[in-house]
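Sat 14:20. Reprocessing the chain from the morning session after the first attempt stalled halfway. Input below, unchanged.
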Amino acid sequence: MAKFEIKKERKSVAIIGDGKTEFEYIESLKIAFKENLAEYSLQPRLPKNSSVAEMKRLIDANLVFDKVLCVIDMDTKLKNPKEMVQYQQLKNRYRKNDNVNFYETHPCTELWFYYHFQYTSSEFGLFEPDLKRLLEKKIPGYEKKAPFCTHQHIVNCGGNFETAVVNGRKSIDSKNAKDRNYTYSEMVNLFEEIGIVEKKK
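Finished this time. Tokens:
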């Protein structure tokens, strides 16, 4: 009797970022980590704007996916106290839903890119230009668009993904140990969720 191989269905994952930077980065990861992502179908979502209301709309529209993972730039929330309150309410709304997760970076995703080169816990506050100037020393001419914000370009400029993983974890541990709310990236937790990075034991 012929044996039929049962093909595993890939988990569908909607990834919602704050803007085009996150969209382009996730798209580049689909190429760079194709083998690691064999069990996942990543669907980056590009919001119309970075508001909490728009994020809520996208989450609700993508609940049909196995997972909805939200990549959050904290500077856009902290600039507006009302937005910050709405963001905390949004997180609380999905707190008991294991299929909706939030991954924060303070001040913004550019810190995760910088972690490919070097660790820092310096306080940037909401002054993204200060971080951008540091990043430009590593990625000449950096702009919030492709190819600058792609995995391939970061690596071509000398960045190392494994270094970013180590630095990302270090930033989370440091944040928790020192009870501070700045200069950290939870992107590594996102990559653990989708199998790009092995979960820490």
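The chain has a mean pLDDT of 92.
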